[in-house]
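Troubleshooting entry. The earlier prediction with iron/sulfur cluster gave an output that would not parse, so I re-checked the input for stray whitespace and re-submitted. Clean input:
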Amino acid sequence: METPNNEIFRDSIGTVTKEGKRAWIFPKKPSGKLYEYRKIVSYILIAFLFAAPFVKINGNQFLLFNVLERRFNIFGFPFWPQDFHLFVISMIIGVIFVTLFTVGFGRVFCGWICPQTIFMEMVFRRIEYWIDGDRGKQMRLAKQPWNAEKIKKRVLKWLIFLLISFIIANVFLAYLIGSDKLLGYITENPLNHLGTLFPLIIFTAVFYFIFAWFREQVCIIACPYGRLQGVLLDNKSIVVAYDHKRGEAENGRKKYRKNEDRNALGYGDCIDCFQCVHVCPTGIDIRNGTQLECVNCTACIDECDHIMESINLPKGLIRYASEDEIENKSKFKLTARMKGYIAVLVILTGVLIGMLMLRNEVEARVLRLPGQLFEHKQDNIISNVFTYKLINKTNKTIDDVSFKLRKYNGVIKLVSTQDYFTVPAKGLAEGTLFIEIDKKDLNGEKNKLTIDVYSHEELIETTTVNFLGPRSYN
Ligand code: SF4
Ligand code: SF4
């Protein structure tokens, strides 16, 4: 975005002093229409985030990312490491969707949906306003010596921050190990589960560090998504933007004076009140143009609208707009790049839906035992040995499971005392089996066999294996 101001801001970060120290941001408490909308969206998302690991569908946790045990539930559907291809396609779809959205609407995700912004601005920052007061009071409190008032406010705030960080860490853990396990550990003595208590303390410390101290630095220096803005945005992307044409006019911005004819004097609508800067949680001046630090939180839009209202000028000096709209008044249009992303997104989503529909709830793998070829047995019988693994992705135990050969006239013998076995719910069964076929029925060295898996008399899965025979039987 073109800069109406100087370019000094490009070489420095608003949160670092010339000496290289942290410049603490004391943003003014936002208010306005967009802030109210963001509050609603944020509280809905927080409720979802807190509820998702505790809600169950068909006995499955709604969202679960148990990396250690390699169990994943997405919207109540269990996924296994064997479904990794679906996970990869979903990730690619997610990346393309976010890219498309960013090309079209900039960092709108950061301002409205990102958990970091939501917790920081809608939970921790609001508690800070409640305890320490608005910007001016916070600045005074920071400067004042450690008297009783400051100690009381700081201790209260840090304790509340710690408690909320602890709650968030618990919810985070519920996503990782499962809510049932977590609740079990809580109701038992947590000291009996130090392997879980220890990560919980680390998560709590990390969340506390982020929300009490690191704050906007996450978005400015740690978040890789923020860094992508430079390559994703172009002058057609809609971002939170200052209308410099209107704000600066011919003779630039100028403080407001009553009964002054700014139009006649050639001054823009920006009255240089700095309210948009004071309200910014990342400490930038949006009037310098689009910047890496801007998380599109819209606080400056609301703030500038209040100012415009108070001096009877039209709102929207800072608004969602593209550079093209500000420069040439051109309306939002889908660009060729966006159309390309949409096409890829539609194709991949179709592929994912197709794969999900074809996905089997039971998965069988029969593999040749490494290093084994075949064995001659009496009566011209050829035997091959295999290992099998049967994965049950459902919540019900599958019993009376057996294998049958399709087409070939042979037998499958389990290395077990029983011909049938059971696969536990959300579990697996594995073992070894022999396939024996009369040599006259073989068609050479390599024979592709189809194995049907039955539970009682119901066919539940089919798999294939290569059965080896002697070359002389070709
Ligand atoms: S709040 Fe609006 S009028 Fe005030 S400095 Fe910012 S852009 Fe200019
Ligand atoms: S410039 Fe405006 S939208 Fe961007 S972070 Fe600051 S207040 Fe939020």
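This one parsed fine. The chain is about 45% helix and 20% strand.
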